[in-house]
Amino acid sequence: MEKSKIKLQNNEEYYYLEVKNDLPNLVLIHGNMSSSIHYMPLIERLKNDFHIYAMDLRGFGDSSYKKPIDTLEDFADDVKMFMDALDIQDAHIAGWSTGGAIALKFAAKYPDKTKKIVLIESASYRGYPIFKKDENNQPIIGEYYTSKEEMSQDMLQVLPMKMAFENKNAATVKAVWEALIYTDHVPDEVTYNLNIEETMKQRNLVDVDYALTTFNMSNFSNGMNNGDGSITKVTQPVLSIYGDQDKVVLEYMIDETVEALKDVKKVVLKDSGHSPLTDQPDELAKQIMNFLL
């Protein structure tokens, strides 16, 4: 499947996959260290049920990164401009991992563009904590980095990946994916290599990591900053999907978001990790179709 390209109002060039047909619109928002290509297992299973759009977010995949992002809201605004550029009046919005947090912000800010929401192993509406490390490189719970520059030197969670991208070190990226993402199943060799190749294109790692820690749609502080309370504006029906073997997003993060939403259904996938796209693609597609159709 070939990517198409479109220029947004902010002059960023977005590459995307599209399955065209006269069916309900479904916009797929990928997570950190990924791209539209990672959604291929789901696209293949839903292509006869939806008009699908899966974009490379700014700084990911083949899309441009002319202006660095500061917040996840910047991505939500890009999604709005993407939909406007393609004359998509409204759509179901699905977000995986970081993409889930972006989907929530999009729904809160652009309710008229949002039908139903699907969260797949989504980051919390209170953000995703990356704590400072002690002399033994262990997290100091409750202590946060105060700038992107400081976070960029985190020897455990940030700097190794930053250096792997800069040095084109695919072996390190594969090791991280196998330790944290592909914990239950590994894709076939062709798919795996393509996914890693797409991951290696990322140019915004530190910006996204910092944006995740400052993201806060709650009514209180998450340790980094006070929330903006915008979670109360998410009134659309939501499906929250969680894999019981996820090592990246813990279940309490899923549950705190579920508790904050007005109309939500939580589904737990057995024997599935952070990538149900790989671990349980058939069940994932089934749950999404049952919810959206």
Q: How would you summarize the topology of this molecule?
A:
Layout: E1 4-7, E2 13-19, E3 25-29, H1 40-46, E4 51-55, H2 72-85, E5 91-96, H3 98-109, E6 114-120, E7 131-133, E8 139-144, H4 148-151, H5 159-166, H6 170-181, H7 189-199, H8 205-214, E9 238-243, H9 251-260, E10 264-269, H10 276-279, H11 281-292
Parallel strand pairs: 3-4, 3-5, 5-6, 6-9, 9-10
Antiparallel strand pairs: 1-2, 2-4, 7-8
Helix pairs in contact: 1-11, 2-3, 5-6
User: Fraction of residues in helices?
Assistant: 25-40%
Shape estimate: globular
Strand neighbour order, sheet with most strands: 1-2-4-3-5-6-9-10
Oligomer: single chain
The largest sheet, given as strand count, sense and whether it forms a barrel, is:
8 strands, mixed
Low-confidence stretches: none
Query: Strand pairing plus helix content: what structural class?
Result: alpha/beta
Distance between the termini: 25 Å
- Total number of beta strands: 10
- How many helical stretches? 11
Radius of gyration: 18 Å
Give the CATH H-level superfamily: Alpha/Beta hydrolase fold, catalytic domain
CATH class (first level) name: Alpha Beta
Mean pLDDT: 97
Output the helix-strand order. EEEHEHEHEEEHHHHHEHEHH
Percent in strands? 15-25%
Please name the CATH topology: Rossmann fold
**Which CATH architecture is right?**
3-Layer(aba) Sandwich
Number of domains: 1
Walk me through this protein's architecture.
The strands form two sheets. Strands 1-2-4-3-5-6-9-10 form an eight-stranded mixed sheet, with helices on both faces. 35% of the residues lie in helices and 19% in strands. It has one domain (4-292): Rossmann fold, CATH 3.40.50.1820. The chain is built from eleven helices and ten strands. It starts with a strand and ends with a helix. The model has no long low-confidence stretch (mean pLDDT 97). It has 293 residues and is α/β, with parallel strands linked by helices. Strand 1 and strand 2 form a beta hairpin. Helix 1 crosses helix 11 (281-292). It is globular.
